[in-house]
Design goal:
294 residues; alpha+beta; Glutaredoxin; 7-stranded mixed β-sheet; 9 strands; elongated
Length: 294
C-alpha cells in the first residue's frame, strides 16, 4: 500500500454517477481534496455498509472542497445499479483490470473466492497530489474509521488554494452586490415584483460567495488569511440576509402593509451599511509574512 507522503498516481476510468455512465478520474492538477475509496465488489454486505456510511456523512460536510470516488473492478453498469439501489451520490469507477488498485498497492490476489479485486482501503490526497492518509482493511469485513478520514481532510491546508478560492468567492460577491444594486433601483421605483426577483438573484450569488469564503477559510494555513476569509464569509452572509429582508419588504409593500415593510427595509439598510468592504487577502498575506519575519 502506498503510504502518506507518496505521490498519488493519476487515473481515468468509466464510471457511474447520477444514473449516467461517464469517464471519471484524478488528473495531475487538483482543485479539490480527493478521497479514494477502493472496495472489493458491488452489493456485498460489507461494501454496502461502507458505501452507505460514506453516503450518510455527506462528504464529511465539505462538499465544495472534497471529491469522493469509489473504485472497484466491477463494471460501470453494475456500479450504476449499486448506486441507484443505495442512493449513492458520488461517482463509482470501474477499474476493470485492477490497474489503479495495483498502482496504490491494494490489489488482492483473491477475496472470498474472487480473484484480482481491490482491498477495502481509503486514501486522502491533497491538492499537490500527495497522499496524506492511507488505510487498508486487514480482513474483508473491516470498516474504515470515518472520524480519522474526516480529520485527515480537515488537516489539509494550503494558502495558495485558499487565496484562489477567496478570489473566486470575491467575484461572486461582486456579482451579488451588482444584482442587489439593480434590485434596489427597482425597489425605489416601486416595481415590487421585479425587485423581489432581482433580490432573489442577488441571494444566489451571495450564497455562493459565502460558501467560497468558508472554503477559503478551511484551506488557509496562515492565521491572517483564515481571519480575512472568515470575515468575508460573514459579510457575504450579512448581505444575503439584507436581500431577504428587502425582498420581504417589497412583498409587504406590494400587499399594502407598509408598517411591516418599513421595519424590514430598515433592517436591510442597516445590514448593508454594516457590511462595508471585504478584507484584502494581499494585506493579510503581507501582514502574516511581516509577523513571521519578526
Amino acid at each position: 500500500m502506498l503510504e502518506p507522503g507518496a505521490p498519488a498516481p493519476t487515473f481515468s476510468h468509466p464510471g457511474a454517477h447520477g444514473g449516467a455512465i461517464d469517464e471519471f478520474g484524478m488528473s495531475e492538477d487538483l482543485d479539490r481534496v480527493h478521497v479514494l475509496v477502493f472496495y472489493p465488489m458491488d452489493f456485498s454486505p460489507a461494501c454496502t455498509t461502507e458505501m452507505c456510511s460514506l453516503r450518510d456523512v455527506e462528504l464529511f460536510g465539505l462538499e465544495a472542497d472534497v471529491e469522493l470516488l469509489g473504485i472497484s473492478v466491477d463494471s460501470a453498469y453494475s456500479h450504476r445499479a449499486f448506486a441507484e439501489e443505495n442512493g449513492l451520490g458520488f461517482p463509482l469507477l470501474s477499474d476493470r483490470l485492477g490497474e489503479t488498485a495495483e498502482a496504490y498497492g491494494v490489489l488482492a490476489d483473491e477475496i472470498e473466492g474472487h480473484p484480482d479485486v481491490a482491498q477495502r482501503s481509503i486514501f486522502v490526497v491533497d491538492l499537490h497530489r500527495t497522499i496524506q492518509y492511507a488505510w487498508v482493511a486487514d480482513t474483508p469485513d473491516d470498516q474504515p474509521d470515518l472520524e480519522e478520514v474526516t480529520a485527515a481532510i480537515e488537516a489539509i491546508q494550503d494558502d495558495r488554494s485558499a487565496m484562489d478560492r477567496y478570489s473566486k468567492a470575491h467575484e461572486q460577491f461582486q456579482y451579488g452586490r451588482s444584482e442587489l444594486d439593480a434590485a434596489r433601483n427597482a425597489y425605489d421605483e416601486k416595481h415590487w415584483g421585479l425587485a423581489r426577483e432581482t433580490f432573489q438573484e442577488a441571494r444566489y450569488y451571495l450564497d455562493d460567495a459565502a460558501d467560497g469564503f468558508a472554503s477559503a477559510r478551511r484551506f488557509a494555513e496562515s492565521e491572517g488569511i483564515e481571519a480575512a476569509a472568515a470575515t468575508a464569509a460573514e459579510k457575504a452572509r450579512r448581505l444575503r440576509q439584507a436581500t431577504e429582508w428587502f425582498a420581504t419588504a417589497a412583498k409587504e409593500y406590494g400587499d399594502g402593509d407598509s408598517d411591516v415593510a418599513d421595519e424590514y427595509e430598515q433592517d436591510a439598510i442597516a445590514a448593508i451599511e454594516d457590511v462595508g468592504e471585504l478584507p484584502s487577502l494581499k494585506e493579510a498575506d503581507r501582514d502574516e509574512r511581516l509577523a513571521d519575519a519578526e
